[in-house]
Amino acid sequence: MKLRLSEEDARFRDEMREFFTTQVPERLRAKVRARQELTRDDVVESQQVLNAAGLAVPGWPVEWGGRDWTQLQRHLWHEEMQLAAVPQPLPFNASMIGPVLATFASQEMKERFLPATANLDIWWSQGFSEPDAGSDLASLRTAAVREGDEYVVNGQKTWTTLGQYGDWIFTLVRTDPTVKKQTGISMLLIDMTSPGLTVRPIELIDGGFEVNEVFFEDVRVPAENLVGEENKGWTYAKFLLGNERVGIASVGSSKRALAQAKELAGDRLASDPILATRVAELENELLALELTVLRVAGHSEGGKPHPASSVLKLRGSELNQAVTELVVDLAGPWSLASGAGDGSAAPEWARVATPTYLNTRKVTIYGGSNEVQRQIISGTILGL
């Protein structure tokens, strides 16, 4: 089964494919295909190439750099970018804080932050999870006390992805501890060079330092950096997380990784029926997910994301993990060569197979754990 596109959408797809494969530097795309770590400069360069062409933030309002595309065109843009191994626009900027500011911020705040956010002149970090408030995010305890024209922030955030690169951090804080926990939360934009703010790296199971702890000790934040209204931060957080879950589906990336796995398997697909069946099942599951993405992505009412975004997050993350596990199995004993140097007899793809597999353990946790997504699905979709 294949998607059937109109002539107009087929031309659009071809335009995206040509741009991504000819205008984004090949050295950046080669790093993505080889699962090599991208530097901060790599990510910035790629996003600025996209932004110059008007392709960095198509889901935003047109006045702030968005494109008046159909939902199908937005899907094709996203899928072709992933299939071409283009570094995706930084999600903290493009699909998290950007849409929140475009929807809820004052005009002054939009003018101040949105152009720099789209062009990655500001690298945003996400300050949501805390040591005792991960999936139960509304239990956060980082406090912001109003003192005149400033808020004084004290507390701790954790699992802040790429926080070592951050210029600013959009942060959920408790501004009213006397009300129901969801009600007393606000969102602040905090300069990460502020006195009293400290970033500490966390070493992950794959040996990398992708995430961080962020500490706030009497950090003073201008009150003008409050997003929207005080104590309405939970509304903005739910809006943001809905956008995040749609992106986590990553159909194009999983399809590209599965195609690479088929190439690595080679003749084994013909001689190993169990392996061939496993690959075929993954291809079918990815097709089913893609069809679901087309029905769901970007469909929202009243500024609220479609509840079925939880389905995309749930199944997309599971399939992402399944593909990386397949590559580890194809590597066999070579998968134990993690961290081996260029002089190793193990091929490069096998050396990164296990670290990639281990790193993708996170995708069923961030953006709201898959257990939480099942609760959302049961309540908002199935009515249980």
Task: Give an overview in words.
The chain has helices at 7-22, 26-33, 40-52, 71-83, 91-104, 107-118, 233-248, 251-265, 268-271, 273-296, 309-331, 348-351, 353-359, 370-381, and strands at residues 124-127, 143-147, 150-157, 168-174, 185-191, 197-202, 211-222, 300-301, 304-305. The radius of gyration is 21 Å and the shape is globular. The protein has three domains: 7-89, no CATH class; 124-231, Butyryl-CoA Dehydrogenase, subunit A, domain 2 (Beta Barrel); 249-381, Up-down Bundle (Butyryl-CoA Dehydrogenase, subunit A, domain 3), CATH 1.20.140.10. The chain starts with 6 loop residues before the first helix and ends with a helix. A four-stranded antiparallel β-sheet has the order 2-3-7-6, with no helix packed on it. Strand 2 and strand 3 (150-157) form a beta hairpin. It is 47% helix and 14% strand. It has 14 helices and nine strands. Helix 4 packs parallel to helix 8, helix 7 packs across helix 11 (309-331) and helix 11 runs antiparallel to helix 13 (353-359). By secondary structure, the protein is an alpha+beta fold.
Task: Reconstruct the topology from this structure.
Elements: H1 7-22, H2 26-33, H3 40-52, H4 71-83, H5 91-104, H6 107-118, E1 124-127, E2 143-147, E3 150-157, E4 168-174, E5 185-191, E6 197-202, E7 211-222, H7 233-248, H8 251-265, H9 268-271, H10 273-296, E8 300-301, E9 304-305, H11 309-331, H12 348-351, H13 353-359, H14 370-381
Helix pairs in contact: 1-4, 4-8, 5-6, 5-7, 7-11, 8-10, 8-11, 10-11, 11-13, 11-14
